[in-house]
Amino acid sequence: MHKARMLTPGPTPLPEEVRLTAARELIHHRKEEFKHIFARVRAGLKYLFGTKEEVLILTSSGTGAMVAAVENIFSPGEKVLVVEGGKFGQRFREIALNWGLEVVSLPVKWGRAVEISQIEEKFKEHPEIKGILVQASETSTGVMHPVQEIASFCQKKGILCVVDGISAVGISPCPMDEWGIDCLLTGSQKGLMLPPGLAFVALSGRAWEKVKSNCKRPFYFDLIKEKKKVVQNQTAYTPAISLILSLEASLKYFTEKGLKEIYLKQRALTEMVRAGVELIGLELLVKEHYTWGLTSVLLPKAVSASKVLKYMKDNFGYTLAGGQDQLKDRIIRIGHMGYVDYVDLLGVLFALKESYVACGGFSGARNYLEESLKVYFKTLSAGGC
Q1: Sign of the torsion angle spanned by Cα atoms 34, 164, 95, 224
Q2: Which of 146, 283, 320, 350 has the highest Cβ tally under 10 A?
Q3: Which parts of the chain sit beneath pLDDT 50?
């Protein structure tokens, strides 16, 4: 029997304190005890997001925050630019279209980051664009888009920058105020090391002015309604109480460890996995501009990714993710976000190699574990993010 280990791009492994906190007896969300906890959570979220603005908490998946951002900031009929470099870029487009927005799509090859020149060209063609929707980290591929540059472009043009940070916040630097991001959102089940069920969204002053001027807003995801409540240490509707209790424990981890140390560890884990994959003899889908939360491994066409994933699960106890849409059965996505360390990833590299060979692949590397571990400690010792 093997111990089950889940290294997917979400949900992610949880610290023991987070799990135990979720098992506590419920408290009432309109009483003083909850309000005191919520006040501490508000401060922790501002630190995590790098903002002086309020970070609103929604009871939903991360997609709920994407919907809330689009439907509060933009009015039906307005034009937005959507960067489509994967499954979640497509989701932003679908949400925008469903709200009645006019969408200018910027397709990007899966596995590559968007270039500022591409955005500039689209804006020249469509100067009436009101905002750009983009993923900080495209979870379906493992690409990190140049959000800081995009936000700077938006500031210069007087348009809004809406960033899906679902697989970036708490994993890699994405300081909202410093970079000039107008809307940053995330979900609980990735970098925040929580179960699914909470979403978070923060807006800049510019974005709030735009929200106030809109002719239409959603009912449940009305961010003005939520903002009025959050300053009272409340939510507009019944929240996921147990998750918010766990959120306090998670945020304590971030504030005590410090974002710099956490980001450095995430970078080191990423470099370690990427080195190990190449030493095994496999190809990395994303050659540059890669996220720090997951690594996408491109398998040869002769080897089925789904078979390798099944072999890893059955024989080593590891649950990993495959590809979506055009990358279905072509890639394996190794998650290294959340409560994960280098020992977990040494094991997954071993399981990957053995499973790949068992399913018809070829690998001649012998010292891949030792060499990848060296990369981890070398990255840590170099410091900086």
Answers
A1: positive
A2: 320
A3: none
* Orientation angle between helical segments 223-230 and 205-213, nearest 10 degrees: 130
The residue among 354, 336, 337 whose CA lies nearest residue 345 is 336
Structure token pair of residue 101: 């927005």
131 close to 162: Cβ distance less than 8 angstroms: yes
CA–CA distance, 163 with 151 (Å, rounded to integer): 9
- Integer CA distances (angstroms), 379 to 179, 291, 382, in order: 25, 16, 5
Residue 116: CA atoms inside 13 Å, Cβ hemisphere, count? 9
Instruction: For residue 334, list its beta bridge partners.
Output: 295
Q: So where are the chain's domains?
A: 16-257, 258-382
Please give the sequence-ordered ranges of beta strands (E in DSSP) within 20-78, or none if there are none: 55-59
8 Å CB contact between 56 and 202? yes
The pLDDT value recorded for residue 384 is 72
State in words which class domain 16-257 has.
alpha beta
Distance CA(138)–CA(294), nearest Å, equals 10
Q: Pairing mode, if any, of strands 5-6 and 318-319?
A: parallel
